[in-house]
Amino acid sequence: MKEETAIFAGGCFWCMVHPFDQQPGIISVISGYTGGHVPNPTYEQVCSETTGHTEAVKITFDADVISYKDLVEIYWTVADPTDATGQFQDRGDSYRPVIFYANDEQKDIAEKSKAALAESGEFDEPIVTKIQPAKEFYVAEDYHQDFYKKNPLRYEMEEKGGRAAFLEKHQK
């Protein structure tokens, strides 16, 4: 097994877990905070928009089963790459879309994938998702973990309220 990690931010982490958690080769998907300047932030601090963090997921995967490139391609289907000020019904800096890379190989894969998406013509607006080096990842409080399993009805409402409508509009 070749264990690697990927970190993606694309709106509320509640809705980011399920699409990755369902893939073969995924070891874990953890909700948390990254990209900011305050050590070990709480949910309330991140929501205050004063820490610089964004809600994100840290995916541990078996690269012999699923590639980082595959994960980036899944990411583009669950985040709106044209909205730098939030995602779907979630607004604010803590919901900005970012691919956080762990090394030069991940950076190259993410940048090439972003360029291909921009050239595809799938979106009328520019692709604004940032690609940045990974920073410290802080695990979110326990009640945020596996939200779609713990609160299936609320998850379904959140999903239908934004991400599902986006997917319906943009999937070919």
UniProtKB/TrEMBL annotation:
Q: Which residues form the active site?
A: 12
Instruction: Supply the Pfam families for this chain.
Output: PMSR (PF01625)
Against SUPFAM superfamilies, the record matches this protein to: Peptide methionine sulfoxide reductase (SSF55068)
- Which reaction is recorded as catalysed by this protein? [thioredoxin]-disulfide + L-methionine + H2O = L-methionine (S)-S-oxide + [thioredoxin]-dithiol; L-methionyl-[protein] + [thioredoxin]-disulfide + H2O = L-methionyl-(S)-S-oxide-[protein] + [thioredoxin]-dithiol
Q: Which InterPro entries match?
A: Met_Sox_Rdtase_MsrA_dom (IPR002569), Met_Sox_Rdtase_MsrA_sf (IPR036509)
**Superkingdom of the source species:** Bacteria
What Enzyme Commission number(s) does the record list for this chain?
A: 1.8.4.11
Give start and end of each Peptide methionine sulphoxide reductase MsrA domain.
5-156
Sorted alphabetically, the keyword list is: Oxidoreductase
Class in the EC hierarchy, top level: oxidoreductase
Q: Name one GO molecular function term.
A: peptide-methionine (S)-S-oxide reductase activity
**Main role?**
Has an important function as a repair enzyme for proteins that have been inactivated by oxidation. Catalyzes the reversible oxidation-reduction of methionine sulfoxide in proteins to methionine.
Family per record? Belongs to the MsrA Met sulfoxide reductase family.
* PANTHER family according to UniProt: PEPTIDE METHIONINE SULFOXIDE REDUCTASE, PEPTIDE METHIONINE SULFOXIDE REDUCTASE MSRA 2
Q: Which HAMAP family match?
A: MsrA (MF_01401)
Protein name from the UniProt record:
Peptide methionine sulfoxide reductase MsrA
Q: Which organism is it from?
A: Companilactobacillus versmoldensis DSM 14857 = KCTC 3814
